[in-house]
Each structure stands twice: as structure tokens, then as C-alpha cells.
Amino acid sequence: MIHGAKFWADPDKYYCQTNNPTEQLLKKRKGEGWLESCGPTAAVNCLAAFGYNLKIYCPGPYKPQPEEVLMDFFNDPRNYEELEKIRHDVDPVSFPGNRIPQLYPFAVKQVFNADGTFVWLSSFRKLAAYLKLGCAAQICLVEPGHFIAVVAYDNKTDEIIFNDSWPDRFADGNGFNRRLDIDEFDRNVKKFAIIYKELKYE
Questions:
Q1: Cis before residue 92, ω within 30 degrees of 0?
Q2: DSSP string, 83-125
Q3: What are the structural domain ranges in the chain?
Q4: Are 43 and 56 in contact (CB under 8 A)?
Q5: What b-and-e string marks burial along 67-76, b requiring 16 or more CB atoms within 10 Å of the CB?
Q6: What span, in angstroms and rounded, lies between the C-alpha atoms of 25 and 197?
Q7: In the CATH hierarchy, which top-level class contains the domain 2-196?
Q8: Which residue from 70, 123, 194, 201 has the fewest beta carbons nearer than 10 Å?
Q9: How far apart are CA 193 and CA 117, in angstroms?
Q10: How far apart are the C-alpha atoms of 153 and 124, rounded to whole Å?
């Protein structure tokens, strides 16, 4: 049996980071690298798996991507004072806020009115327990240093199912509904997560 977010298997709820304006700008600037928005896109993929309305509306036909708006929130100087209150040891002027996991609960609340909770993640079993409760989780790989969105747990195979917003890192070019087992988790996942819960309408 597979436990997880309501739309964990819906490819229409999958967001890719390689096509947003920030990534394109960084890609064009020599020597700066790119693929900076994995954190915001992982958060968006978690929320999308629950069916959150993530559309950003403009008066004209242009449709901004939600991960781009979340990315902007972390790097908007008007937000630096509040972000510093959450992580006193990080200077948002010189370090991108989108790389700091403890900032995500505040950011997703401000941008999408969604609830997230930062937790220290002691084990694969702890993550699986959250997924069995219907949660989704934003976790970070050690190598490469990269956020992914965990959207389900397969009880039969004992694997977590995740959406990776960087599809080109896989040989088949597909980042949707990849799988990760306990051995890979223990070897290559940082021991924290941002936990997201199902959208509850009032």
C-alpha cells in the first residue's frame, strides 16, 4: 500500500526548476553556476501534491511560476529582518535564504498561506511515519546538495517516493515519482525535513 499526499501520482502536479527565470539568468551569467531554486521548487512540489492553489496571477497573459515567487520572497530585502529572527546566525544580505531549511515554514505561510514545520529527522522510519499520516516532506540530499519533495511511502517495497525538480540529473531525464530506499537515505540524506500537511478548507 502507498501512503502519501492526495495527488502524489499526478504528473500535472509536478514542477521542474530548470525552466524558471532565476535559473535562466544564472545559466546565462558565466562563472555563477545555476540550479539555485531546488528548495523553493521542492516546497512547491510538496504543496502541489496536496492540491494547493499555487497560481500567481498577473493582469496580462504572463503566468509567473510559483517556485519563482517563493524564491523571490527569500531574497527580497524587505523580508530580511524577519528572516534574521528565525536564523540569527545567517546574514540574508550575503547568503541566499532559499538554502536555509528553517526559513521555509515562514516563507510558505507568507506566500501560499500553507503550513510547514521544520523537524530534525533522525531516521528513515521517522520520515515513513510522517508519510503514513498523509504528510509530504522537503528533504535535502548530501550529494549533490539538493532539495527534493517526498510525496509518498510504499509500504510493500519499503521505499519513499519523491519528485525531483532537476530531472536532467537522471539518465532518463525524468524527475517525477523517483524512489529512494533506506540504504540511500542513511547514506545521502541530511537529517532534517520540512513537513507539510494536507490542505484543510475552513
A1: no
A2: HHHH-TT--TTTS-GGG-GGGHHHHHHHHH---EEEEE---HH
A3: 2-196
A4: no
A5: bbbbbbbbbe
A6: 33
A7: alpha beta
A8: 201
A9: 8
A10: 11
pLDDT in tens, the chain (202 residues): 999 999 999 999 999 999 999 999 998 887 777 889 999 999 999 999 999 989 999 999 999 999 999 999 999 999 999 999 999 999 999 999 999 999 999 999 999 999 999 999 999 999 999 999 999 999 999 999 999 999 999 999 999 999 999 999 999 999 999 999 999 999 999 999 999 998 664 4
Count of positions (residues) in the chain: 202
What's the rounded Cα separation, in Å, for the pair 201 and 64?
Answer: 25
How many Å separate Cα 34 from the centre of its chain?
A: 17
Give the helix ranges, DSSP H, for the chain.
21-28, 38-48, 66-74, 80-86, 104-112, 124-132, 182-188
Q: What is the pTM of this model?
A: 0.95
Using DSSP's 3-state secondary structure scheme, residue 129 falls into: helix
